[in-house]
Amino acid sequence: MIPLLYPLSFLAAVISLSLWFYFQKNRGLSLLLRAVFFTALAVYLVSVVLHAGAWSAKWSLLFRDLAIMAVAPSLLSILRNRSWLFFAMLGAGILSMIFGWNRFSQKLTASVPEGEWELLLELKEGSELDRLNELTKQYGLHYERAFFPGKPSNTDLDDFYLVEIPQAKEDQMAAISAAFLKNAAVDDVEKNDLVQVAPITELPARKNPGKEYGINDPGIQYLWGFDQMNVAGLYSLYRETKAKPVKKPLIAILDTGVDGTHEDLKANFRSTNGKYNKDKVGHGTHCAGIAASVSNNSLGIASFSPGAGFLTVTSIKVLNDYGAGTQAGIIKGMIEAADLGADVISMSLGGRSDDSKQNAYQKAVEYANKAGAIVVVAAGNDGAYARNISPANTPGVIAVSAIDTLLHRANFSNRIAGLTMAVAAPGVNIYSTVPGNKYKSFNGTSMATPYVAGLVGVMKAYKPALTTQEVFDILKKTGIPTHTPEETGPFIQPGKALAELLGI
After folding, report:
1. Catalytic: which of 111, 315, 413, 446?
2. Same topology for domains 119-192 and 202-502, yes or no?
3. pTM as predicted
4. 28 FRET partner, CA 20 to 30 A, in 9, 255, 266, 444?
5. Which position among 188, 283, 295, 353 bears the catalytic label?
6. Rounded CA gap, 384 and 366, in Å?
7. Known active-site residue 339
8. pLDDT for residue 133 is more than 90
9. 51 is catalytic
10. 436: left (phi over 0), alpha (psi -120 to 50) or beta
């Protein structure tokens, strides 16, 4: 219904507004057309808001459509004295919109992940789908195994199924979920929530010469956060300590893909799947640069890694080319990262969830932990509370808020109240890698998250068996307070964290 409302209401708004201009001297007809226009406009706005899809696509289309509504009637009103030409032009415009009205749905549909399934269903151990036959027939449901963990003995994730509800029955989702929960074969059911990259804003790079770091990366002058985190102290510790890393840690960036050929990433990049090595959005590549750019190579920027070969970064594409994905897709990526042996899983993504518990996410985190991975997640950019955002609100993850140059919580960053483990990192005007050997500055908890992931990777290079709780305890002990610590958590200090880990 919503897809049909969009073109009809848009056409009605343009036509009624044009005719309102044309018949403005006819008071009765003018009032009627005005009422029709505002009604159509209201329906149009509702149809856009309720349509599934990424807001990046919606904003661009809103701008285009409202521009058409503003310009077209004004131009047509010039032809009021030439009725035949007015109606000919109006008719031509209507025909062009009719032939092109599916572009909105096509673009928004493309921004929604393919193969979207509405529910995640967990069967009880030993139960089979045929015990759901009555429900299946009643609602016309379809099922597909959700996850294929490499070590099924370590988890119940292989008991999860995706549930597809026919479009005509989607308004009965609550009733279907309730019916599942009453079935003896079902352990749990939850929505397969839509997930997106935490929205970012591009900013011009700003010079901030900072301290002497003893490395030659030219872009370090733009990394204001390095001063605030005393990264100079971290680099000094590398030079002075006798401790040697015992492992080259692997950081998995679960995102929109990563440009693995980037000049400042390729020496640290490990490809696990060729289709993950392209990034049309730029978000994943930006995050990868923050976590694992090659330091001291006379190119671009630097990370907490002291140089090429200290750690490895890889890409697992869980979001489409519009930055959108689903809960099931994210969990599949987490399983894949764990099975690849990732030491850190970095997820600069999230979405609002109606479910009070995150059963599937929690089991995915537990699976990753058993495989030796620590999961780091963005707190989100709603300026509200991360406890309402998944997977940031999932037990067992380290959530990351964003702070600005003055150590205030960034105005967009979600607050961490109610979360068990959360820390803060720079998230405003963060300069990093983007596809095509380029560099840009973005805002977001998306940018704060890979700072923490990179630090966790450094820590696991020296002590690979570290648990999430052990890492968080060190970050909490060595972090410094922001101006609102109850909203952000402690602000990470990499040098102090590594010194604490090494007992220095």
Report:
1. 446
2. no
3. 0.76
4. 9
5. 283
6. 27
7. no
8. no
9. no
10. left
**Encoded tokens for 7:** 């073109």
156: annotated active-site residue: no
What CATH number matches the domain at 202-502, 3.40.50.720, 3.40.50.200, 3.30.450.20, 3.90.1210.10? Answer: 3.40.50.200
**Is it the case that residue 87 has pLDDT exceeding 80?**
no
Q: Is 186 within 8 Å of 136 (Cβ atoms)?
A: no
Question: Is 108's pLDDT higher than 60?
Answer: no
CA-to-CA separations, 127 to 119, 132, 151, in angstroms, rounded: 18, 10, 20
Distance between CA atoms of residues 362 and 357, nearest Å: 9
Catalytic residue among 255, 259, 279, 355: 255
The bridge status of strand 349-352 relative to strand 194-197 is antiparallel
Q: Per-residue pLDDT tens for 418-460?
A: 999 999 999 999 999 999 999 999 999 999 999 999 999 999 9
What region, left, alpha or beta, does residue 442 occupy, with left being phi > 0 and alpha being psi -120 to 50 degrees? beta
Residue-level pLDDT at 116: 63
Domain ranges of the chain: 2-111, 119-192, 202-502
Q: Which residue has the higher pLDDT, 353 or 279?
A: 279
**Exposed, middle or buried, 91 (CB in 10 Å: 0-12/13-18/19+)?**
exposed
Of 45, 97, 39, 40, the closest CA to residue 68 belongs to 97
**CA distances in angstroms from 194 to 31, 373, 384, listed in the order given:** 42, 24, 18
pLDDT tens profile 363-401: 999 999 999 999 999 999 999 999 999 999 999 999 999
Record: fold of 119-192? Alpha-Beta Plaits (3.30.70)
H or E element, residue 19: helix 2-22
Q: Which one-letter DSSP state was computed for residue 112?
A: S
Token couple for 20:
């309102």
